[in-house]
Each structure stands twice: as structure tokens, then as C-alpha cells.
């Protein structure tokens, strides 16, 4: 007899496959209804993907976008996370930083692309900077709220018993961050890829954005959709490799907490 966890995973996989199947049917219906000049068929898009991969064009472009997205997300996210934790622990830091990062979050990414082009010129630096400045406030606000949500009674008890700072960080701060940080990381990762591709299109940098710009100049809708599909696939792979272990750790932690509560 299958275990509940195995049955749950199988059910999720089945529903995921059903969702993708419905998306494929809707895509093919749109291609039939509106024609290839509006939406290319699945077959034409698949052939374009195969051509991009076999010709060796897709690999370097996807790698460039991956570097711009992950590099910018790592740099901006690290700054935002560090300042968010510090702001949650030290009131003046949080009070001063919150309006700044709120303003950064409210600034449209396209404005940062334009500024980056003026500051750094065309190329990958503009894309990486735009991603960093977009990811930083997302992680900052999540960290600030997460640290602020920790149990004050536990914090007071830790201070009373003179728990070392490292123990307070690992036992009090990080568990409080988990519920806020994981959704923020997923959001920041998705935004990083979208912003990186947009910046590449406008800055003329290498990557998926460069491929999209070329396809647009040639009015090649199949190639355009192929680049979009490839970018989404790379995003999903990055999410699975980077965030799935964190989701598993969070689920196991919640399971242990629940088991202790029942005991």
C-alpha cells in the first residue's frame, strides 16, 4: 500500500501534468483560431526550439541570462537580507531602511534599466544591476517582517539565560524567517529572470533578451515563442535546484514541530 506522502506526490504530479496539458490545448487552439502571425503552433515552436538548441545558439544565451539573473539576485538579495535581519533586530536600522527599500520596490524596473544604460552603457552589467536593485527590496521586506514576527517571550528568555548570539540567530531568528523568506525567494527568483530578459532586450546584451530582440527584428514569432519557452524552462530548473531543498527542509521542520506538539 502506497504511503500518504507518495500518494500526495503522485497526485501533485498528475495535476501538474493536467495543467500543462490544458495549457498546451489552449495554445494550440489559439494558434488555430488566430493563425501563425499571432500565435505559432506547438509544432512550429518546437521546431524553433530544436533549431536553437542544435545550432548552438541557445546554450550560450541561456547561460548569459542565468548569470545575469542569478548573479544579480544573489548580490541584491544578500544586501537586502542582511539589512532586513539587522533592521528587525535594531530598531533605528529598520526605521531608516524601510522607506528606502519601499521606494526602491515601487520604482518600475524599466526605470532602472534606463538608468543602468546611462550609468554602465549597453551590456550585461546593466542587466545584472537591474536585477540586483529589483531583488534587494523583496528580500529586505521579507526578512524585516520575519525577524519582527519572532516570539518576544522566547527572545526575552534567551537574553535572560545569556544564550550566545549565534544560538539566538539559529534557534530564534532563522526559524522566524523561514515562513517569510521562502515565498520571497521564489518571487525574487522569478522577477530576476523576467527583469534580466527585459534588460537584455533593451540594452542589447547577450542572452535570451538578445535572442528575443533578433527574433523581433526578423518578425519570427516561432523563434520568439521558442526563446520564451526556453527561458521559462531554465527558470523552473533553477527553482527546482535552488528552492526545492529549502521547501523540503521547511516541510520536515514543520513535521517535527507538529510531532512534538502531538507528543
TrEMBL record:
The lineage of its organism: Bacteria, Pseudomonadati, Pseudomonadota, Alphaproteobacteria, Hyphomicrobiales. It comes from Xanthobacter oligotrophicus. It is found in: Cell membrane. Pfam families: BPD_transp_1. The chain crosses the membrane at residues 69-93, 169-193, 225-246. PANTHER family: ABC TRANSPORTER PERMEASE PROTEIN MJ0413-RELATED (PTHR30151:SF0), ALKANE SULFONATE ABC TRANSPORTER-RELATED, MEMBRANE SUBUNIT (PTHR30151). SUPFAM superfamilies: MetI-like (SSF161098). Belongs to the binding-protein-dependent transport system permease family. This is ABC transporter permease subunit. Residues 62-242 form the ABC transmembrane type-1 domain.
